[in-house]
Write a structure and sequence with these properties.
By secondary structure, the chain is an alpha/beta fold. It contains 12 helices and 11 strands. The chain is globular. The termini are far apart.
């Protein structure tokens, strides 16, 4: 049994902020010459197709950001939008058509899909070599085996961030709170690949705080505003907050934010918060990702990185 430091320990001397925008800009600057190289050797830009079903404002906004970033990097992108009433069969036909197109290297089906759609069938229909989100069972298998393949963007971005800031993972105890197929599970596998000792927690974990307090690296991917607090953070731990939650209740905001951020809440009527209490995280962690501005900016950059990787593999240009 590990002995953990008491939670009442004082503030970390100066917590380092792990800035996602800096890492995002570096990823983009690495992609540009690769796009140029592909253009001159294969005679075309990398191609990304994004399939959007319905008109959920959050999904629309994510897709807009993806296509804008693709354009900024010289990646050809297409958006295929269909109404929420589309059938699974019709969506499968769209995926098959994109699978067959030579100039499309990467296919992304924006999630969540409406409840009547068989999401697993749709994701499983994307050609693994074009599966830019890394959600196809084939790519999940490669990830599990530690073999090269397209990896889910958000967890891959977290690893990239930790490496950028020289945060050692080998031999460290990483606790991942959340076990979704999109974030928690692939995050755990990627940390394992970096030789961390990994513990995965979820909603049935009896004493979440006790497990989280044993973490050298704590990754929160739960989707509950500021659920993790001083009770969950070992002083000096590195904390990665993947959560993105919008708060629009002032009482809730008072529970979570410092007076300065409360002023922002009062101005805007809402605020984004992660899964970790931002005040406790800044006080106790040795390094942490802020929300917003931490993990968030990396996801789309990693999507572009996966797109160029898929294009290089498919064209043989590397
Ligand atoms: P999800 O599919 O809802 O999964 C949430 C996970 O948290 C589940 O494994 C669930 O456990 C666990 N959980 C829920 N309540 C818990 C509790 N009280 N104690 C311990 N574990 C609990 O969510 P997700 O897609 O992984 O996303 C997680 C968060 O990351 C969300 O805030 C999302 O918006 C954010 N996100 C951010 C980005 C980005 O680019 N920054 C990308 C993706 C997601 P069970 O499995 O037992 O139900």
């Amino acid at each position: 049994m590990r002995i953990v430091s008491p939670i009442s320990a004082g503030p970390s001397s100066q917590a380092k902020i792990l800035d996602g925008k800096t890492v995002r800009d570096q990823i983009k600057s690495e992609i540009r010459p690769r796009v140029e190289r592909l253009r001159s050797h294969a005679g075309r830009a990398p191609g990304l197709a994004v399939v959007l079903v319905g008109n959920d404002p959050a999904s629309e906004s994510y897709v807009r950001s993806k296509t804008l970033t693709a354009a900024e990097l010289g990646i050809h992108s297409e958006q295929i939008t269909r109404p929420a009433e589309i059938t699974t069969e019709a969506l499968l036909a769209i995926v098959q058509e994109l699978n067959g197109r030579e100039e499309i290297d990467a296919i992304l089906v924006q999630l969540p899909l409406p409840a009547h759609i068989d999401t697993q069938r749709v994701l499983g229909a994307v050609l693994p070599e074009k599966d830019v989100d890394g959600f196809h069972p084939f790519n999940v298998g490669l990830l599990t085996m530690g073999r090269p393949g397209l990896k889910p963007c958000t967890p891959a971005g977290v690893i990239r961030m930790l490496k950028h800031y020289g945060i050692a993972m080998a031999g460290k105890h990483a606790v991942v709170a959340g076990r979704s197929d999109i974030v928690g599970k692939p995050m755990s596998l990627l940390l394992l690949q970096e030789n961390a000792t990994v513990t995965i927690c979820h909603s049935k974990t009896p004493d979440l705080a006790a497990v989280c307090r044993t973490a050298d690296i704590l990754v929160a991917a739960i989707g509950r505003p500021a659920l993790l607090n001083a009770n969950h953070i070992r002083p000096g731990a590195v904390v990665v907050d993947v959560g993105v939650n919008r708060i629009d209740s002032r009482t809730e905001a008072e529970r979570i934010f410092s007076p300065e951020r409360l002023a922002v809440f009062d101005k805007n009527g809402s605020l984004l918060v992660g899964d970790v209490n931002p005040v406790d995280m800044a006080r106790l962690a040795s390094a942490y990702t802020p929300v917003p501005g931490g993990v968030g900016p990396l996801t789309i950059a990693m999507l572009m990185s996966n797109t160029i990787e898929a294009a290089e593999r498919r064209t043989g240009v590397a």
